[in-house]
Amino acid sequence: MMDILKALPKIELHCHLDGSVRPKTLYELLLKEGFREFRDYKEFEEAVMVRDDCKSLKEYLKKFEYPLRVMQKRENIERITYELLEDLDKQKVKYVEIRFAPYLHMEEGLLFEEVVESTLMGMERAKKDFGIWSNLILICMRHEGVEKSIEVIQNAAKYIGKGVVAVDLAGNEQDFPPEIHEKAFKLACEKGYNITIHAGETGIAENIPKSIQLLHAKRIGHGIAAAKDPKIMDLLKEKNIFLEMCPISNLQTKSVGSIEEYPIRKFFEKGLKVTVNTDNLTVSNTSLEREYKLLIEKLGFSLDEILRIIQNSIDAAFITHDEREILRKSVDEELRKLELI
Ligand SMILES: [Zn+2]
């Protein structure tokens, strides 16, 4: 079974660039930039990856401090993007939507355009070298306020159709509810962005309907709090909203107490459109293969059901009708080679 999971063609829709920096590269760049607070590589690894005893999302988010220190230069951002795609290509990922918040990379003087274009250059170079196809989702941060979100949406509009496909809202859900950013996401709609919103990750179920109704989300990041309210599950189903679930990350941040309480099986059986993603390859020390394995071993998913989840991801991807048919064909081709269809 593990060999099959390794060989499966995969789709990744929820993957943070800063949480997915190749560890060896991060170590090398930190040393190069003069950050020498680790005694050795092992101590470094503990500082940038979560352990099983991680207590909260807050503790989890502390791990992003180190990648953000080195992701303030164009060449570093380009390299990190390229290497992430090289790693994903080896894991048989056919299509990925990478996301990051441009403003977090402008602390040492980079311009918005330099940050976005460095990522797009890494994506292009990876496509040329490995054939892996990727698009970009830009994140607005909840705590930065609506005006900053509007800036992201306005500044990046020129990249729609050139690698940027969507905008997202992320960060502290409790203190900064979706309605604060309503004006920004109305603008995003008008500009032609696709919209996905982090909501219901840390237990606040009402953020899910608000993100759909007020922010026009077509996909919800995590969404696990929907399990508490049948009306919200009905809304997700009725509006055909896709859930970008990230099981290992959600377990680490203690969004659920244990894998047995994780609602993906419940959502799946209710006919909700779930997709499975990694959130952060490095911080969570995970891969799609590990996520699928967890679903099979702990939640009773069959291989056929994993294939249905992959089909959901194809349907959920922020791509055009024609592109979706190309992606579907390339995934089917791989599945046929594996004699799975
Ligand atoms: Zn996320």
Describe this structure as you would to a colleague.
This protein has a single domain, classed as Metal-dependent hydrolases (TIM Barrel, Alpha-Beta Barrel), CATH 3.20.20.140. The chain is 48% helix and 14% strand. It has 16 helices and eight strands. It has helices spanning 2-7, 23-32, 41-48, 57-61, 65-70, 74-90, 112-130, 146-156, 182-191, 207-213, 230-238, 247-252, 264-269, 288-299, 303-316, 321-337, and strands at 10-16, 93-100, 133-141, 164-170, 194-199, 219-222, 242-245, 273-276. Strand 5 (194-199), helix 10 and strand 6 form a beta-alpha-beta unit. Helix 6 packs parallel to helix 7 (112-130). It is globular and about 50 Å long. Zinc ion binds at residues 14, 16, 170, 198, 221, 279. Residues 14, 16, 170, 198, 221, 279 line the site of zinc ion (ZN).
Strand order of the largest sheet: 1-2-3-4-5-6-7-8
Derived structural class: alpha/beta
The main pleated sheet reads as:
8 strands, parallel
Number of domains: 1
What share of the residues does DSSP label as strand, in percent? 5-15%
Large-scale geometry: globular
Blueprint (SSEs and pairs):
Blueprint: H1 2-7, E1 10-16, H2 23-32, H3 41-48, H4 57-61, H5 65-70, H6 74-90, E2 93-100, H7 112-130, E3 133-141, H8 146-156, E4 164-170, H9 182-191, E5 194-199, H10 207-213, E6 219-222, H11 230-238, E7 242-245, H12 247-252, H13 264-269, E8 273-276, H14 288-299, H15 303-316, H16 321-337
Parallel strand pairs: 1-2, 2-3, 3-4, 4-5, 5-6, 6-7, 7-8
Feature tags:
alpha/beta, 8-stranded parallel β-sheet, binds zinc ion, 341 residues, TIM Barrel
